[in-house]
Amino acid sequence: MRKAFIAIAAFLVTATLMISLAWPPFYWAFIFIGPVILLGIYDLYQPKHSIVRNYPVLGRLRYLAEDLRPKVYQYFVESDTNGKPFSRLNRSLIYQRAKKENDTIPFGTQLDVYENGYEWLSHSIAAISHHELNEDPRVLVGGPDCAQPYSASILNISAMSFGSLSQNAILSLNGGAFMGNFAHNTGEGGISDYHAAPKGDLIWQIGTGYFGCRNDDGSFNYDAFGIRSKTEQVKMIEIKLSQGAKPGHGGILPAKKVTPEIARIRLVKEGFDVISPPAHSAFSTPLELLAFVKKLRELSGGKPIGFKLCIGRKSEFFAICKAMVETGTYVDFITVDGGEGGTGASPQEFSNAVGMPLREGVAFVYDVLSGFDLKKHIKIIASGKVSSGFDLVKNIALGADLCNSARAMMFALGCIQALECNSNTCPTGVATQDPSLMKGLVVEDKKVRVFNYHRLTVASAVELLGAAGLRHTYQLSRAYINRRIAPNVMQSYMETFPYIPEGSLLNTPYPLRFELGMALSTSSSFAPTDYRVTAIDYAHANSFTDTQQSNN
Predict the structure, then answer these.
(1) How many other CB atoms are there within 10 angstroms of residue 116's CB atom?
(2) Which are the contacts of 543, defined by CB distance < 8 A and separation ≥ 6?
(3) 380 DSSP 8-state letter
(4) Any idea what DSSP says for residue 73?
(5) Rounded to an integer, what distance in angstroms lies between the CA atom of residue 202 and that of residue 230?
(6) Rounded Cα gap, residues 278 and 322, in angstroms
(7) Which residues form the Glutamate synthase domain (predicted)?
(8) Among residues 65, 142, 398, 510, which is most buried (max CB within 10 A)?
(9) What is the mean pLDDT of residues 266-294?
């Protein structure tokens, strides 16, 4: 092909010159063939791309095809049910509710109800009309030491920072939260002007970078925290221990992105790389974590303090619970992020192969809290691919009290799942800092769509609650949700995730499937105490049974 290009290029140049001698206006043809020939000559000698080097000009079509592939697949190949991460069925539902269009479907379900993994709700013959139910169920978040408990909606906006999202996206999300009286998590990037301006309720997330409450060396600044946490708009404070999309991974904000505005919001130096380490520097043990929680609660004037995590080593969560029992200091809420959670940018290995999925995470956290008799003090927030009323009901049935949603809220803003969040080229102006793209997102219109989506999704969850014959979300249990696990085998969540007795982890004998976690954990360290556990103990701890037995 290299020789062919040289021959074709020589022929075109020669032919153009000869024709131009007879008819001079034909010289203008060089405007078209000249750039192509020059590009081909560059391709012949550039060292980086083998295909382009061997197939000058034509080889570049490969990169065009790669760029077009996701778009062609989404619009012309994928079915309504097989799109990833969110199917067209999910996306269409969100768009319809955001725009207040007809969200019903004709001719029955498109899902294969005999496929493994299909899930459904057990309804009741004595169903209750949703008109008789509270259309805006609330959950009071705040334990015994909380002076300013917060009445939260069962659906709120999950953590997304200004910087990862555009200013217009943040303004729209918070504006929708203000209209609908639900909460907006700031993400670890701090409280920006765009979070504050619409006056919607905020959950201030504090990550390992301590943005908005840090010293120059990256350590935690208690004075800065005290000032910002006391603002009326901040309703709860969330300490981010890990994130479902990239648990155990820090991050770097490159110097070129640290604008004067970002520097002011995050309390960092303009023009310098900003490091978010993988772990916190303000504490290093479960006991220190709870002392940190207690200090933040005091500085904030008694607002709810909690933490967010994706479950990794189970022993670490046991250790935190042991520390709460020993100290009598409780967090007010725990946000459980599933491994299927989204992010603007994550290493593929972390996104695909690190972190416990949400369903198992919520069930585990609820059971351990219940086993330590702590659940009565602590609310659980489920976060990870929550988009429909059934998602709300499923997570609440597993043990959550309320849910957070990120990507569904982005769809409500107009996100088309272009999968360009990490390239600053988001075509809808949601996940970009490009001013020309941001202009496409009109705040006054999109905030209404966020409000509509929230209201109608909560309403659908309430309708499902009534269909099950229940009046309150706290009446949901794992017995109400069913899942096909084989062609002729169905299990309720109660069977898949059996409950354990309240307080059963306070004294021996422990439920057998929790013995290993209890043996590996200590309140004085996050590190597992493997040296205490033998291979025989590992084999003895059967994770599929709750049979209790005495310790030897």
Answers:
(1) 11
(2) 513, 516
(3) E
(4) I
(5) 12
(6) 24
(7) 154-470
(8) 398
(9) 90
- Same domain for 53 and 199? no
Evaluate whether 335 touches 306 at the Cβ level (below 8 Å).
yes
Looking up residue 222, the CATH number of its domain turns out to be 3.20.20.70
Q: Is residue 335 part of a domain?
A: yes
User: For residues 155 and 16, what is the distance between their CA atoms, to the nearest angstrom?
Assistant: 68
Distances (CA, A) of 46 to 54, 116, 445: 10, 51, 48
112 and 118 in contact (C-beta within 8 Å)?
yes
Cα-to-chain-centroid distance, residue 233:
23
For residue 392, which amino acid is it?
L
**168 and 68 in one domain?**
no
> What's the pLDDT tens digit per position in 167-179?
999 999 999 999 9
Q: How far is CA 42 from the centre of its chain?
A: 44
Rounded to whole angstroms, what are the CA distances from 65 to 59, 68, 70, 420? Answer: 10, 5, 9, 16
Verify that 188 and 67 share a domain, yes or no: no
Same domain, 127 and 52: no
**One domain for residues 158 and 70:** no
Burial of 34-59, coded b for 16+ CB within 10 Å and e otherwise, reads eeebeebeebbeeeeeeebbebbbeb
> Between 286-299 and 314-327, two packed helices, what is the crossing angle to 10 degrees?
60
Task: State the Cα–Cα distance between residues 291 and 320, nearest whole angstrom.
Answer: 12
CA distances from 243 to 79, 248, 335, 381 (A): 30, 8, 10, 13
Rounded CA-CA distance 98/354 in Å is 32
Residue 89 lies in a domain: no
Look up tokens 């925290």; give the residue: 225
Tokens of 525: 């360290």
Tokens of 190: 């701090």
**Residue 17: which domain range?**
1-77
Per-residue pLDDT reduced to its tens digit, 145-164: 999 999 999 999 999 988 88
Contacts of 291 by beta carbon, 8 Å cutoff, 6+ apart: 283, 327, 329
The pLDDT-based confidence of 534 (bands split at 50, 70, 90) is: low
- Cis peptide bond N-terminal to 85, omega within 30: yes
**375 and 481 together in one domain:** yes
CB 110 within 8 A of CB 87: no
Could you say which DSSP state residue 75 is in? I
Residues 70 and 186 reside in one and the same domain: no
User: What's the pLDDT at 2?
Assistant: 84
Among 442, 459, 489, give the residue marking a domain's end. Answer: 489
Do 63 and 124 fall into the same domain?
A: no
525, part of any domain: no
Give the full edge-to-edge strand order of the sheet including 481-486. Answer: 119-121, 481-486, 489-492
Residue 324 counted as domain residue: yes
Q: Which residues contact 529 (CB under 8 A, 6 or more apart)?
A: 315, 519, 520, 521, 522
Higher-confidence residue: 303 or 416? 303
How many separate domains does the chain show?
Answer: 2
